[in-house]
Design a protein that fits this description.
By secondary structure, this protein is mainly alpha-helical. It has helices at 4-8, 16-30, 32-35, 40-53, 56-69, 77-83, 88-100, 104-113, 127-143, 147-163, 171-186, 192-203, 209-225, 229-242, 250-256. The longest helix is centred in the middle third of the chain and has 17 residues, at 127-143.
Length: 258
């Protein structure tokens, strides 16, 4: 069965240097000037494999999930899961299977047909598999411009991690992706009221006062735009209580007389 190690043609205990060397060798052979445009799909898989295996933390998480979920079997597991598509547990496992075999579009299609955010995959996967699956799915939705759905999945993961740790040192990557998504991409994809709902969700998750102050500032800016000066004024005060040196708050304070 295809995996990141077979994509790079290295052993599962290969060193970082061996992985880098294998990537360079294969990338040269797959370069468009040599292999043509038909090699583009293989190059994408090669890059995906390298990005995971060359990063210590991502490789650790991948190995842990792969060893649990992807087993050598004597039948076509993908076909078996597809043949049992009426069973939600099989669909949940198929989403996870496709994600780990770099068939992201197929995984998202199954997830969409199953109800997308309303599909309770946590009922059908082990907790660890579910959390790994949700993180991978959020990454791929983000890459495809489906920012709100990615946001929802990432906040579910953060809330669950706060309840009972699983990702541990890898949680910095999860939180980093969530903050990056909120800072750079989410706002353009949601309306004002939904944006405020998203900020309220973030404030429930237990981030630092500095982060919370910035999200409160954004809420106040949105409320002011919506014409609710009283609520905006109250929220600016709360933001400044959490971070008295809050950047870019001067003009907002002037408008609201705070």
């Amino acid at each position: 069965m295809i995996n990141h190690y077979s994509t790079l043609a290295v052993r599962e205990n290969a060193s970082t240097q061996e992985i880098k060397r294998a990537f360079r060798d294969k990338a040269k052979r797959l370069h468009p000037d040599i292999a043509g445009k038909e090699a583009e799909a293989e190059m994408r898989k090669l890059l995906a494999a390298y990005e995971v295996l060359s990063d210590r933390d991502r490789r650790y998480e991948y190995d842990r999930a792969y060893s649990r979920f992807i087993k050598k079997v004597d039948f076509d597991y993908r076909s078996w899961l597809r043949d049992h598509a009426d069973d939600p547990a099989s669909r949940a496992k198929l989403v996870f299977f496709e994600l780990f075999h770099l068939e992201e579009d197929a995984a998202i299609a199954v997830w969409d047909r199953s109800g997308a955010l309303d599909f309770p995959m946590e009922r059908y996967l082990d907790r660890e598999d579910w959390m790994d699956c949700v993180y991978l799915l959020a990454e791929k939705l983000d890459e495809r411009g489906r920012y709100y759905e990615a946001f929802e999945l990432l906040t579910i993961l953060v809330r669950e991690e706060r309840r009972r740790p699983y990702f541990r040192h890898f949680m910095d990557d999860v939180e980093g992706l969530l903050k990056e998504l909120v800072r750079l991409r989410l706002r353009a994809g949601v309306g004002d009221e939904l944006w405020i709902d998203c900020m309220e969700t973030l404030l429930e998750l237990g981030f630092s006062p500095r982060d919370e102050a910035r999200w409160l500032r954004s809420m106040a800016e949105t409320l002011l735009k919506m014409g609710d000066e009283a609520a905006a004024r109250s929220i600016v005060r709360e933001a400044l209580r959490r971070d008295p040196g809050l950047p870019n708050a001067g003009r907002l304070r002037e408008k609201l007389n705070v």
